């Protein structure tokens, strides 16, 4: 119907930070609040999509009509995303930690006189790139974000190519922008052959605009 153009379509959204454990009480994290990803999940559900939201730790309520899977680490986020497939579209708004602590300690690391602990890091799986490269069950529309602090469009285009997704929303996350944690966002929508400069607006408005574009994409696919 006109008001629920995504009715019956399954979609996956990731949101929030990941927490990478150091020991039972400590972790590595980042400043993502989850607001942008939750707003996208809500906007897609409003258009009738059946949304699975794979979320790192946040303080947010699950949007109405959305199924939430809560995880902590990047590895668990990848497993939850794979379990949610097949979907028709996947939107990766989470701020996934690029690195985890190589050997998580199962006891609390003790403070010792004159000795500093050192942490070795290991690379986390890239969830967006992994899903984009799937031979089976690749969503027909894979959308990533690019969190950049300089040359936003160039870096975003490079990420689009490197990760093999279909669209990228590139945003400036430099100090003072408030993109991480704030209520507003200014994004560029990058596709293989176009760049759109969206105005600075609330994360809800970014999400509604994106959801409308996703609905238009499927309308055009269906028309072919
Ligand atoms: O949560 P908020 O406070 O509302 O803030 C929103 C946001 C700034 C977190 C969001 O708009 C955003 O930019 N999300 C992506 C953050 C990020 O980590 O970007 P990146 O450029 O490092 O990663 C590029 C893409 O690859 C992203 O789609 C990311 O989800 C994905 N990725 C990255 C690393 C990894 N190991 N796995 C991934 O899937």
Tell me what the structure shows.
Helices cover 28% and strands 27% of the residues. The two termini are 19 Å apart. The protein has five helices and 14 strands. The protein has one domain (10-101, 120-223): CoaB-like (Rossmann fold), CATH 3.40.50.10300. The radius of gyration is 18 Å and the shape is globular. It has an eight-stranded mixed β-sheet with strand order 5-4-1-6-9-10-12-13, with helices on both faces. The chain is α/β, with parallel strands linked by helices. A hairpin with a 2-residue loop joins strand 2 (20-23) and strand 3. It binds ligand PMT. Ligand PMT is lined by residues 14, 32-36, 74, 92-96, 98, 124, 126-128, 144-147, 159, 171, 173, 179-181, 203.
Structure summarized in a few sentences:
The protein is α/β, with parallel strands linked by helices and 224 residues long. The protein has helices at residues 35-46, 74-84, 127-132, 152-163, 203-223; strands at 10-15, 20-23, 26-28, 50-55, 67-70, 89-92, 99-101, 121-123, 141-148, 167-172, 184-185, 187-191, 194-197, 201-202. The chain has one domain (10-101, 120-223): CoaB-like (Rossmann fold, 3-Layer(aba) Sandwich).
């Amino acid at each position: 119907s006109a008001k629920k153009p995504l009715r019956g379509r399954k979609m996956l959204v990731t949101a929030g930070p990941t927490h990478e454990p150091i020991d039972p009480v400590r972790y590595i994290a980042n400043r993502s609040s989850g607001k942008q990803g939750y707003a996208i999940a809500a906007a897609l559900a409003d258009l009738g999509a059946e949304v699975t939201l794979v979320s790192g730790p946040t303080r947010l309520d699950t949007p109405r009509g959305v199924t939430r899977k809560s995880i902590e680490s990047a590895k668990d986020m990848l497993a939850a995303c794979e379990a949610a497939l097949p979907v028709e579209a996947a939107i990766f708004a989470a701020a996934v930690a690029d690195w985890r602590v190589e050997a998580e300690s199962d006891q609390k690391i003790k403070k010792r006189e004159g000795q500093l602990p050192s942490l070795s890091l290991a690379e986390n799986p890239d969830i967006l790139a992994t899903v984009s490269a799937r031979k089976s069950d690749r969503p027909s529309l894979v959308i990533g974000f690019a969190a950049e602090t300089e040359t936003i469009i160039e870096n975003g285009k490079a990420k689009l190519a490197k990760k093999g997704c279909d669209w990228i929303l590139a945003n400036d996350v430099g100090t003072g922008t408030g993109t991480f944690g704030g209520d507003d966002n200014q994004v560029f929508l990058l596709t293989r052959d176009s760049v759109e400069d969206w105005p600075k607006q609330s994360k809800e408005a970014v999400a509604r605009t994106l959801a409308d574009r996703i609905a238009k994409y499927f309308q055009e696919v269906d028309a072919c």
